[in-house]
Structure formats: structure tokens, C-alpha cells
Amino acid sequence: MTGLAGVGLLFATASCTDNLELTPTSIITVSGFWTSEDNAKGALNGMYVRFRDEAADNLFMWGESRSGTLSYGLQASQGLERYFENTLDPNFSGPQWLRMYTVIHDANLIIKYVPGIDFTVVEDKNRMLAEAYTMRAYAYFTMAKTWGAVPLVTAPTEGYDAETTFRERAAVEDVFVQIKEDLNNALSLYPDNSLSVGKASWSKPAANALKGDVYLWTAKRLDGGNADIQTALTALEEADVTALSLEENFDDIFRYDNKGNDEVLMAVHFRDLESGTNYNNNMYIPDEQIPNDASSEVLEILGQGGGLNRWGPSALVTSAYSAEDQRKNATFLNITTPGEGGQMESYARVVTKLRGYVDASGRRFLDDVVIYRYADVLLMIAEAKNALGQDPSAEINLVRQRAYGDDFEAHRFVDMGKEANDEAILQERLLELAFEGKRWWDLVRFDKAFELVPSLQGRENSQYLLLWPISLNTISLNSKITQNPGYGN
């Protein structure tokens, strides 16, 4: 084993290789792999490939599915209602943390072995290490927000020894200490402040966006207070580099032929023959279910169908946008058809933000999954400024100017005081970032989940629901893993 079993990560669900006794990856790499710059680059690419596997579905599930932005679609939901109805339990717990630890293991190998490899250009070595530290920080940040305390593994586990590889969950405070240390290490190693080519790998501005995100979380969820808010604001302002700008047309941000545009800081790259489809495959609509009597405008936007409509935008989302907001049709479509009395009735709702492209084989859901983009950074700056008693209007209005165009003046934001500003910022994040895997964590960070998620209203005495249950499979693989409170033994 590679040692991943120590955190409940035996590859018991991996595939038909489950019963094979495989040579440990890390042993192979120690004996013959970590010898050259080219091999190290291959390992870095492998880390991003494993990360893409998580971005295809799991990041969205953890960051959005429980937030109330989704509801039933036309097809059988196949259990997806357990997310938006917030009825998860250890038997149906959602995506497990197993594969995130494979990403961490990749990062750990790079951090351990790359310093001993000679590089032609030392800055390339430093950048590689910086990316590995940033990736490890992001992975632990994602898991800490999802499950709270998680096993903390900061070195590759080479060989198998149950005493050392079976790990208990580290306190969430300790996990965040490691996250912050990794980010500081990363930021000290990036050789410049440029964005990565194609925006498909970590960079210093993207790492600063992550740092701002982390410190906003610890300020609000772990009593970090104004000191953490100020650190967040400083990092976010450093992430606001001159190379970034808002796309004039909101819909252009997500188009397949516009990958790595000027609004993107970091995205997970999807491309034909390199990867499978992403999560919007379950939120569009197949050709045979597109009604002929829908409006011509809707049919034109939909174009060729594809994927399945297992779930779609909820009324919480569809009622949130004004008619003047260009983000509306670029985010979702409400398909209506004539009823018996001639009045238009809702038939289905589909997500259009990540609708892919069409080729001879049909609609392909291969848009990049954006991790951080400029509008997100602007709204986090507004959030930090407001928490510090500063006016967040400038950043909010940059986002609204793009959204409303000629109608902007009717939607100009004016400072209304800290509490009202927070409500406006959270709502703006919904309108701007819906279906990008942000909403659940936004609601938890703002302490609004029980107020704004329909299926959580009236359940305020069940605060444990803010964390996800740990799967029975994970616990069965490691006797040192304990269940989150509220979900049974």
C-alpha cells in the first residue's frame, strides 16, 4: 500500500483492481523516479490530473449541493435529493475524502523529493514546490470546511505500517495551522506574481486568493477576528493584479473556446480525449426532452441538448435575478410550455453556465471548472472591507456594472451599514457565482445556512449539519476515525 490506508483510504472502491496486490507507488518513485527535472514535471502533471478527478463532480457536491440552489429535474434524481433536502447520513454521506488524499500524497512526494533534484533554472524548482504547497493547502481547506477535523498527513507514507499509517483526525484548528503554513511557504517560493499560462495551475495571485478565502473562514468560523480579516484583505488585494479584468459579457467567462480568459485566476482544465465530462452533465437536458412548443428564444439558447436533467436550479435561484441582469440567462433557463388554458407553465430548468460545446458526437460538457476568478476576488475584498468597517461599494459596483450594463444606475450599490452590506454581498455572490461550487461554504461562512437553505429552516438546533457525515466505508477502513457528532456512532 502507499500508506493512504492510514486515513481510511484503502482503495476498496477503486475498481476491478481492488483485489490485486499492487506495488506501492511511492516505493517505485523512491527507487527510480525522483531523479530528474522531467520526472518531477511528470509528477506535477499527475497531481493536477488527480485534482481534475475531484473537480469533475466532488468539489461541486461539497461546495454547492446542500445550499438550496438545486431541486428536482426531469429525470430520476438517483439520490441527489439527499443533498438539497439535507438528509445525508453515514450510509449516504456524499463523496468521500479518499481521492483528496491521493492529491495530497502527490503534493507530499513533490515537497519531499523535488528539493533534491537539480533543475536547469532554480525558479522552475521553486515554482513547482510552490504549486505543491498551494495544492496541499487547498485540499486540506476543502476537507476542513466539509468535515472539520481530518487526518493530517504532511509526508508521503512509504511502505505500510498500521501503527504509523492509521491516523486519527487532527483538530480542525491544527489543520488550519498547516494550511496557513503551507500558503506562507508557497507564497515565499513563487518566483514572480504572474498568472500561470492557461490559468490551469496554481500561481502567486491564485494562492493569494486562496489565502484570502482561508483567512475569511478562520476569521468567521474559528474566532480569528479582525486580525484574520485584515490578513485576508491584504492577500486579496495582492491577488488583484493588473492582468485581471472582468469579461465584458458574463456568458463568455465559461465558454469552452474562451478558456483561461482574463477573469480567471485558477481553473481545472478539461479537454476532449484528456478527461471525462464535468458536473453539468447532470443539469442540462437531452434532445428528446426539449419541448417543441417552448419559446423560440429559449430553444435558440438551449441549442442541441445533451446530458441529463437529474437536478436543476431551484426557485431560490430562479426568483433571485431581475430581468435586467445579464447573468440570468447565462446562469439558467426556465423552460416553459403552454398549459391547457394557453398560459405558460414551467416545464424544466437547466443550468446554462457550464453548457459545454457541440460537435459531431453531440454536446460535450468539457468547460473548465473555475476555482477562483476576478469577480469572486472582488466580492471577497468587499466582504473583508465590510467586516473591518470600510465601504465595500467600489468592488460590489464593479461586479454590478458588468451585470446590469446600461441599467446599472438603477442597481448601484450604496453603503448601508455592516449588517445590511453583508446581506447584499452574500446575495451578490449568489447571483454571480451560482453553480460554481461556492454557495454552501458561503452560507456557512456568513452563518446563514439555517436561515436561507429551505431544507434547513427550523433545524437550528441541529448545528452538526454544517459538517458532513463521514462514510461508514471510511470508518471501516480505519478504526481510529470517529464519526462527526450528530450522525450516530
Please provide a written account of the structure:
The chain has 489 residues and is mainly alpha-helical. It is 43% helix and 9% strand. It is built from 19 helices and ten strands. The protein has helices at 25-33, 37-56, 58-64, 81-84, 98-113, 122-147, 162-165, 172-189, 204-221, 225-239, 296-302, 315-318, 327-331, 374-387, 393-404, 418-433, 439-445, 449-452, 472-477; strands at 70-72, 264-268, 283-285, 306-309, 311-313, 332-338, 344-351, 357-359, 362-364, 369-373. The strands form five sheets. The chain has a two-stranded antiparallel sheet. Helix 6 (122-147) packs parallel to helix 9 and helix 9 (204-221) runs parallel beside helix 14. It is globular, with a radius of gyration of 23 Å. The two termini are 28 Å apart. The model is unreliable at 1-29 (pLDDT under 50).
How would you briefly describe this protein structure?
With 489 residues, this protein is mainly α.
Write the layout of secondary structure elements.
Blueprint: H1 25-33, H2 37-56, H3 58-64, E1 70-72, H4 81-84, H5 98-113, H6 122-147, H7 162-165, H8 172-189, H9 204-221, H10 225-239, E2 264-268, E3 283-285, H11 296-302, E4 306-309, E5 311-313, H12 315-318, H13 327-331, E6 332-338, E7 344-351, E8 357-359, E9 362-364, E10 369-373, H14 374-387, H15 393-404, H16 418-433, H17 439-445, H18 449-452, H19 472-477
Antiparallel strand pairs: 1-5, 2-10, 3-4, 6-7, 8-9
Helix pairs in contact: 2-5, 2-6, 5-6, 6-8, 6-9, 8-9, 9-10, 9-14, 10-14, 14-15, 14-16
